[in-house]
Amino acid sequence: MDQFTVYIHADDPILRAGLATQLRPRSEVRVIDAPDPGRTTVALVVADRVAEPTLRTLRSLQRLGARLVLVVAELDDSDLVAAVEAGVAGVVRRAEASPDKLVQVVRAAAAGDGALPPDLLGRLLSQVGKLQRQVLWPRGLTFGGLAEREIEVLRLVADGLDTAEIATKLSYSQRTIKNILHDITSRLHLRNRSHAVAYALRHGLI
User: Fold this and answer.
1) Do residues 151 and 206 lie in contact, with contact meaning Cβ atoms separated by under 8 Å?
2) String of b and e for 92-121 (b: at least 16 CB within 10 Å)?
3) Using alpha carbons only, how large is the chain's radius of gyration in Å?
4) 120 by DSSP, 3-state: which?
5) What span, in angstroms and rounded, lies between the C-alpha atoms of 201 and 147?
6) Do residues 89 and 120 touch, judged by C-beta distance below 8 A?
7) Strand, helix or coil at 119?
8) Which single residue of 105, 146, 180, 184 has CA 20 to 30 Å from 14?
9) Which helix (H) or strand (E) segment is 25 a member of?
């Protein structure tokens, strides 16, 4: 049986001790007292709700390479989106945080999977759809931060076409193609057009 290393973060030491007491008897879990970039598999972050200090904690733990699980008392739609943007892979309501549930979500997070209560998943998908309809589509953007025209240019770069060939195929000037590629690399902090193609492939855009 796989054993998952877990770090528990809670501003309230009683909450932290309570979760640790629930998890330590479980053979699947090894609770550690401090985050360690070389050891931490999953970080359980306990909070009343997703305020800015909680988001800072989540981001700092993610930078250490931890998979994040949020154990939270209250969560509205904007909190949910903010938590996911901060790297949270799993969410458990505090009232439902039984040892079995925690181990289930820890296992999913350690495997790289997401774990949300069904109603929260529905709310998240609703928020994603609203973002796409109200913000991205009116601006001609996708979730990867690229416009359809930019994606088409990168698709042709990936096919091996040079600037002149892309300009001819899309009926643009070569300067326009160069400007599009420059805008992509500058906006997304990419090194060159090859890096831009790799970015688009990694995000499933081409």
Assistant:
1) yes
2) beeeebebebbbebbbbbbeeeebbbeebe
3) 21
4) helix
5) 15
6) no
7) helix
8) 105
9) none
Identity of the amino acid at 17: A
Q: Which pLDDT tens digit goes with each residue over 83-106?
A: 888 888 889 999 899 999 999 999
131 three-state secondary structure: helix
What is the phi/psi pair of residue 72, to 5°?
A: -135, 145
Q: Strand 29-32 to strand 42-47: parallel, antiparallel, or no bridges (unpaired)?
A: unpaired
Length reported for the chain: 206
The amino acid present at 91, given as its one-letter code, is V
Note whether 185 and 179 are within 8 A (CB): no
Give the predicted TM-score (pTM) of the model: 0.61
| Residue type present at position 100 | D
Give the C-alpha separation, 89 to 78, whole Å.
16
Type of residue numbered 187: R
